[in-house]
Amino acid sequence: MVGLSSIHISDYSYVLPEERIAKYPLENRDSSKLLIYKGDKIEESIFSDIPSYLPFPSTMVFNDTKVIPARLFFRKESGAIIEIFCLEPHNPSDYALSFSSKESSVWKTIVGNARKWKSGTLHLIIPENNQELKKLDLRANLVEKVDNSYLVQFTWSTGVPFSEVIEKCGNIPIPPYLNRETESIDTERYQTLYAKYRGSVAAPTAGLHFTDRELTEIERMGIRRQEVCLHVGAGTFLPVKSDSISGHIMHSEPFAVTKDFVNILANLSEDEMVTAVGTTSVRTLESLYFIGVHILEHISEDFSALTNVSQWEPYDREYPYTLKESMNAIYKYMESHSLDTLGARTQIIIVPGYSFKIVDAMVTNFHQPQSTLLLLIAAFIGEDWRRVYEYALKNDFRFLSYGDSSLLFRKKC
Q1: How confident is the model at residue 101 (pLDDT cuts 50, 70, 90)?
Q2: Reduced DSSP (H G I as helix, E B as strand, rest coil) percent helix, strand, coil of the chain, to 5
Q3: ∠ CA(174), CA(179), CA(183), 5° rounding?
Q4: Domain ranges in the chain with CATH number 3.40.1780.10
Q5: Is the Cβ–Cβ distance between 61 and 274 less than 8 Å?
Q6: What is the distance between the alpha carbons of residues 354 and 290, in angstroms, rounded to a whole number?
Q7: What confidence score (pLDDT) does residue 148 get?
Q8: Which of the residues 70, 75, 122, 155 has an alpha carbon 20 to 30 A from that of 369?
Q9: Could you read off the pLDDT of 166-198 as tens digits, one per residue?
Q10: Which of 88, 46, 18, 64 is nearest to 407 (CA)?
Q11: Could you tell me which CATH number the domain at 4-67+191-409 has?
Q12: Which regions of 1-146 does DSSP assign to beta strands (E)?
């Protein structure tokens, strides 16, 4: 981890006035502003024009995760209100199996007002005369505390799958910095149009700008469109509390890629660029390289060891393998183990000094000061991140999840 102790989070800050935070989405998804950074030059446009700025030939990678209504409100017999924020399934740990459960499911959660809930069964707060929710009779029981989270068992009646239960009972978990309660507009707009697989508790917000018009035009231009799935965790909002980035513990998130997609990455032409839509797609793609390294170096026979990327792994040493070698290793592993989809986890943190293996361009929103997301941007375009953010602030760009967008081309060393 040579050099990481010299990366101080205070050096990656800027003044973000409250009025520049977009509290609500614009009426039309693709009417947001678009900042383009390429070759030290900055210009601006409208997001609906993004196809004309994309590189060709290229592959564009989207995160097709779907945000779940992860916030559930229960009441104790004493009257105390307890909020349960679902993070990820524990038993069964597989997302698909958990969502298909019809009687009970245990989830890793964050519990609000936890000091008032030591034991006992909680009952969902049900609006008056909502007979459907009364029949569901959703209950919560505390299993145990694990570090800073809680394992909670949900039980319900009527035999419907948990996916239906949480859709009917939960609330979309909009970011805390919006400083407002979830509203009906968030159900539709805090979700990408191409979302498929339930599991995220935060949206991959770079994708919120895309409409069918842009997606159709991208494909018409011959730009290859591919999808990965990384379920975004609540850790994406955790602030960096240590002075040096070396003291920050990054959150771990599950992701999945298909064998066909790995094969595409293994056979990219020399002039073909990879554009990632969002920081979650960037982290997924870059993590794949290190999984290939694990396989090439036979680090373990254990599947979970092969498919877990640790936080500081990219900084441990120099890696001699090409992208093609790494992706071919994954592809052959998947073929030999009859895997059409590879499930993995990543804790990777991307900070200045990181050597990018796959991503050449990135679509992303404007991120919070002193955040790991801003550090990723600084790693991607160097010190020019300051120019980009100064331009955005001076030219009335809207910031954070519901804000405007940017298309950044990686600064070559």
Answers
A1: very high
A2: 35, 25, 40
A3: 50
A4: 4-67+191-409
A5: yes
A6: 13
A7: 84
A8: 70
A9: 999 999 999 999 999 999 999 999 999 999 999
A10: 46
A11: 3.40.1780.10
A12: 33-38, 41-46, 58-63, 65-67, 71-75, 81-91, 104-112, 121-124, 139-146
State phi, psi for 368 to the nearest 5 degrees: -65, 150
CA distances from 87 to 137, 227, 327 (A): 22, 23, 30
322 CB neighbour count, 10 Å cutoff: 12
Pairwise CA distance, residues 314 & 291, whole Å? 11
Q: Which of 81-85, 147-151, 318-322, 348-352 has the least mean pLDDT?
A: 147-151
> Does residue 355 contact residue 275 with C-beta atoms inside 8 Å?
no
- State the Cα torsion 340-343-349-350 to the nearest 10°: 10
Q: What is the dihedral of CA 24, 28, 30, 33, to 10 degrees?
A: -50
pLDDT (tens digit per residue) in 244-263: 898 998 989 999 999 999 99
Do 86 and 109 touch, CB atoms closer than 8 A? yes
- 161 close to 100: Cβ distance less than 8 angstroms: yes
Q: Which of 163, 144, 189 is nearest to 29 (CA)?
A: 189
Enumerate the H helices of 191-322 as residue ranges.
212-220, 259-266, 279-296, 303-306
- Amino acid residing at 45: S
